[in-house]
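Suppose a colleague, Dr. K., hands you the sequence of a protein chain of 565 amino acids and asks what its three-dimensional shape might be. Before reaching for any lab equipment, you can write down a predicted structure in token form. Begin with the sequence itself:
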Amino acid sequence: MILAGVFSTAASGAEEMRTSPLEPQLLAFCGIRAVQEREPNLTGLDVQIAAVCRSMTYLDGLPQGDYRFDMSHRCLEGSGVTFADGSNGYYGLSSHATAIGGILVGLDPIGSHSERGGFFYKGICPDASVEVYEFWRFVSLTIFGGRDFSADILTLSLGDLYEDWWTRGIDRLAAEKGVLVVASAGNGAESGDSVLYPAAGANVLAVGVLDAEIGPDGQPMLGSFSLPRKGNSSYGPTADRRCKPDLTAPGRGLVPTAQGLAEYDIAGDYTSLAAPTVSGTAALLVQKARTTPALDRHMGILGRNCVLKAILMSSAQKLPFWNKGLPGPEDDTQTPLDFQQGAGLLDAEEAVRLLTEGNRPETGSEKGWDHLILSADRPAALYPFITRLPMGQYLTATIAWNRHYEDRYPFHLLEDTNSDLRLELWAIDPNTAERILVDISDSPVDTVEHIHIPLLPDSAEYELMVRINNPEVLSSGRREHVGLAWSVGEDRSVVNPWWYDLNEDGRIDETDQMVFTIFDRDQTELIDQPLIRETLKLSQERIDLLTLQWDQWKPYLSRWHSPSG
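The predicted structure, expressed as tokens, is then:
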């Protein structure tokens, strides 16, 4: 709950927001500010978020309890934050956790920073209720001990390189409670590259981070972002070849710290802030569904995490150089996502639109979502839709479901109950009415399937088919909850300027134009010269990607084309 006194310090909160810069600016980049402006009542009211935070200090291997949001900070005063251990948030403080709290529920109409000046600080869902847990207490009492848990969203900005009993226990919690679990993927090379657990878990939504754009002064900018990069954002595949992360979001922004009552600092490109950015967006979706009875009934409880995951991933914006799996122009049917981008950049505005407009899959509209339940009696489901302007339109569709685990320590995977689903796109030939298979996503190891493909220019009628490859696991009355979402629209990456960052260094300059010239003139043998490769700052992986897909991606670089080209 927001206290009236918070607003009284600035006369009118709404008026102040119109006249003061809004922080953190990263929320505008992924569509959250547009949602707040269009639907001011979406504030996270009556949504419960569980934030599991790590202790920052350990003594002889034991956590020292400094994991809390600083509740004396002005942007958190009056917010609906409680602590699972019964403390009050005035000791054992963590700037890392306080920044997460600010992203979620911060509100300060008279914020200031020595370099940034004055601003209105507003998080994503300031009316949400947040219960903060210390990590080891959470896994000991809730995961191992089975203490009751009823939050709508669980967010974790922490992780470990290896799967363990507690990571499997969190996967089980997601499946058994229908809670959306969101976790940071890890900070790239700083954490050993691999996606961290629990983000790497089958039932968890893993979030990577976009790098901030480098400004003319050579410093990272606020509010402007480029692409996810392996130096800062951990990437897939996992050890068992699953795609991770699932989404990316910006992470650099102005955040509150635990260093003073009104102190703010600039956080780096960290997945620790990208994860709560997605969690807060999910809270807005939960509130929207909960206050719209038809949406709430349709979404259900068990499997709700799968529906939210499908909506967030299907509404994401593809960024330049998005490609399934390994380099190559072919659509990899067994690899549903890009190993760096996942399904793409979080787009909160499009996610709310898809949730609101897509709640009628039976009408065959261009946006749709469903909470379907597969069983022995219903091992497949068909969803027809019609697009009015097939020329140049893309279909993006996602299904998500859960893996299942034992209900006690050490929470082993129940191999015999895990479904293997596939997602198919079919077109209806307008001349013969025959069905034409357009695309398949059929990973043998992932718990998401994802299609992003241009529609056929002469077909307006399509069908999405969800089917189970191993229906025998649904015997004995077992059912599988599946989230499905799809959307038809333009290729939104066309106008993204980061197509021109060919050498992946976070800036667009003359070296990128040199790379373009070499590939455009088919002089790639020059790159074999060490001095040229070093000058162009090209990795071998980037060379492979550009070499194999140059014809596919060159049209996006229109301003560098020759007049005759």
